[in-house]
UniProtKB/TrEMBL annotation:
GO terms for molecular function: metal ion binding; methyltransferase activity; uroporphyrinogen decarboxylase activity. Its cofactor is Zn(2+). Residues 2-337 form the Uroporphyrinogen decarboxylase (URO-D) domain. Keywords: Metal-binding, Methanogenesis, Methyltransferase, Transferase, Zinc. SUPFAM superfamilies: UROD/MetE-like. GO terms for biological process: methanogenesis; methylation; one-carbon metabolic process; porphyrin-containing compound biosynthetic process. Coiled coil: none annotated. InterPro entries: Methanogen_methyltrans, Mtase_MtaA_CmuA, UROD/MetE-like_sf, Uroporphyrinogen_deCOase. This is Methyltransferase MtaA/CmuA family. It comes from the Archaea.
């Protein structure tokens, strides 16, 4: 069974030969950059380099997907934010692009452009996805991601103002999130129409470390429900941080699957959601994959599988500094412990 066949079965709740080892988020590594002699900043600005970097973790380790882009600025750029890509950095420097200038000062300042498929780096991402499909798409699922409405709001306006207004003036934030939901649904459909195999929505700004479960239910969840209703399956909802108190709400969002990180107690999440839920997680991408020993990685994979994940994947972007040995151990451990009877 190819990775693509395996992951299709997992999303459709059919029985695969084993659990998969894949992700819906960035998984480029320093070894992948060395393979093509790229600086980190280059893979955000060139479609072919982005595509090659996205395919490299499958080529080097057998990691079962190819996902692009690698940063969280594509949507914000379309809406008018200015990015810093740190193009002065050398090939050894791993610095992710950041928002240099926010797009709006007040929620009412938002102006969504027409023809977003032609704006910012969207054409570049679409070209990269096309190259990835030609390169490895016969065997490996091709995927991308969009931000969730609340996380995108934090990218385009001052984060402290967003948090304060979420408590003191939720009606204004609700209206902003409604507009961002429509924008993200349109962008997601553009990616889906380009032939990707699954789409992840990263609502990283909404864990209970930041917002209460009540706030998540009343302010965040309605917009996620609307977004997933407008997207085609399969989709994944990923939220970083502590999600133990909101996993039922995450599952109610309408996503095909949910993705949780290492702070989530997967065994309890499986107990709460039942056997029908598709749950991906929850390997610590830095503490375990980068800093851990091969034995630490094998133990973490075994724990996630015993806890009931539907497939094993990192709790966020794989940190590029991960060693080749640890990545190979990660993939092989899933093959060993993820066999199904």
């Amino acid at each position: 069974m190819t990775p693509k066949e395996r992951i299709r079965k997992i999303f459709s709740r059919e029985k695969p030969d084993r659990l998969a080892c894949f992700s819906g988020m960035g998984n480029v590594t320093v070894e992948g950059l060395k393979k093509y002699d790229y600086a980190f900043y280059e893979i955000h600005l060139d479609a072919e380099k982005m595509a090659n970097a996205a395919c490299s973790s499958y080529e080097l380790y057998g990691f079962e997907c190819a996902v692009a882009p690698f940063d969280l600025g594509v949507e914000a750029e379309v809406l008018g934010a200015e990015m810093n890509f740190y193009t002065h950095k050398g090939k050894e420097d791993i610095v992710y692009p950041t928002v240099k200038k926010k797009a709006i000062n007040e929620p009412e300042d938002l102006n969504v452009p027409e023809k977003i498929e032609e704006k910012g780096r969207v054409p570049l991402v679409l070209k990269a996805l096309e190259i990835m499909q030609k390169r490895v798409g016969e065997e490996v699922p091709i995927a991308t991601y969009i931000l969730g409405p609340y996380t995108l709001a934090g990218q385009i306006m001052d984060l402290e103002k967003l948090l304060k207004m979420s408590f003191k003036n939720p009606d204004r934030i609700n209206e902003l999130l409604s507009q961002l939901t429509d924008f993200l649904a349109e962008l997601g459909r553009i990616y889906q129409d380009a032939g990707i195999d699954y789409l992840t929505v990263r609502e990283m700004g909404a864990p209970t470390d930041v917002l209460s479960p009540r706030m998540f239910k009343n302010l965040i969840l309605p917009h996620l429900k609307e977004l997933f209703l407008k997207l085609k399956e399969p989709t994944v909802l990923h939220i970083c941080g502590d999600t133990n108190m909101i996993v039922e709400l995450m599952w109610q969002s309408g996503a095909t699957a949910i993705s949780v990180e290492q702070k989530n107690d997967v065994a309890k999440t499986r107990e709460k959601l039942g056997e029908e839920a598709i749950i991906f997680g929850n390997i610590d991408p830095y503490g375990t994959l980068v800093l851990g020993t091969p034995e630490d990685i094998r133990n973490a994979v075994k724990k996630a599988i015993v806890g009931g994940v539907s497939s094993v994947w990192p709790g966020c972007d794989i940190w590029p500094a991960v060693s080749k040995e640890n990545m190979l151990t990660f993939v092989e451990a899933v093959k060993e412990f993820g066999k199904l009877q």
